[in-house]
Amino acid sequence: MKLVCSKPQLVDIINTVQRAIAPKTSLPILECIKIDANGDGNVVFTGNNIDICIEYNTECTVTEGGTIALASKMFGEIVRRLPDGDVTISVNPSNYVTKIKSGSSEFNIQGIAPDEFPDAPILEEKFRFSITQDVLKKLIRKTIAFVSQNEGKKPVLTGALFEIKNNYLNVVASDGHRLAVVKEEINDNVENNKLVVPGMTLRELLKILKDDEENVDIIVSDRTVLFDFGYYQVYSRLLDGEFLKYDAIISVVNTLNVVVEKSLITDSLERALLLINDDISAKSENKVPVRFNIGYDKIDVSCITGKGQVNDTVPVELDGDNLLIGFNCRFLLDALSACDEEKVKMEFSAPTSGCFIKSVEGDDSYIYMILPVRLYN
Q: What is the CATH code for 2-116?
């Protein structure tokens, strides 16, 4: 195999494909990028850790076709440090030694026979829909913090539910203590359906997606989803299991409604978090809750830790009875940071019921629910 590719093009390809490379594995082939070149100038770079597979299709000058697997970390570091200009990659088919050359710099590294490299999944399409990159990025950004990172009793919660319902895409995430529901209208005429995408896949997509209106085609089979960007494709396994029945949770009618400047409540919570983070006696943040004493058009925000105490007051627009309630401070901040408006609506009903954070516009474009933490004194 012998091909020539520009360094910037190659760096971009490697950065993308490495998202699917296993950081630690007992199978050396999964630490590799496979390069498959044909005589027509089409070259496919692939990373595959079984859970995620990324294929990047590009055009290069190919003088000799072939296939090779190269250790991803070494290959990437070499290419990034080469002088600017064209990069020539040539492989000795008898021993897989691969020459990487640019300008006066030349490396010879040992490649691996690509025979054991796993193939990309073969999809038997059930349904598909399209969405722009910026919208998909927004949906993931607004929900990813709520995805559980602990398989525990319900592994399906380590992913996010993508639910197509009445021409809307609802993305739902929950770790059992909090819930995020974000929705966006889609133009495709798609029947109601759903899938659960692993959080690991969503975190990698968030790094790849751009803030533009280019379409991503999402193609779904029984066990796999394909995010097709045109020149590269991201395959991911799907999670099995029954996701949380969230409709009943978000349809609760609350009796205490608060409208607050997002920056004011966020700043207050971040001040409280300074003490919580510094309290080394706390085994978990739930054991050092932030207190909301709500009433008289204000929220008194307070927190007591082994290191000290903080008290703050945030003005609000209030409709309802007074309430004293406690929360995990970081959970509230995660929800607020996902809200883009200057003001947010916070709804409460009782010290043992969740806080709902919604748009002040009155629509249901996003809903966050955070369960309270019991206050003992």
A: 3.10.150.10
Q: Do domains 2-116 and 127-247 have the same CATH topology?
A: yes
CA neighbours within 13 Å on the CB side: how many for 211?
A: 1
Count Cα atoms within 13 angstroms, Cβ side, for 252: 20
**In the chain, where the domains are located:** 2-116, 127-247, 252-370
- What is the radius of gyration, based on Cα positions, of the chain? 25
Q: 154 pLDDT exceeds 80?
A: yes
Q: What is the pTM of this model?
A: 0.93
Residue 353 phi, psi (nearest 5): -110, 160
C-alpha 165/C-alpha 193 separation (Å) is: 7
User: In the chain, helix, strand, coil percent, each to 5?
Assistant: 25, 40, 35
Q: Which residue has the tokens 């009782």?
A: 350
Instruction: Quote the CA–CA distance of 210 and 227 in Å, as a whole number.
Output: 14
**CATH class of residue range 252-370:** alpha beta
pLDDT at 26: 81
Write down the architecture of domain 127-247 according to CATH: Roll (3.10)
At residue 79, what are phi and psi to the nearest 5 degrees?
Answer: -60, -40
Structure token pair of residue 182: 């974000």
Strand order in the sheet with 308-315: 308-315, 298-305, 290-295, 323-327
Q: What is the mean pLDDT of residues 151-178?
A: 94
> Which is nearest to 247 in space by CA: 191, 163, 187?
163
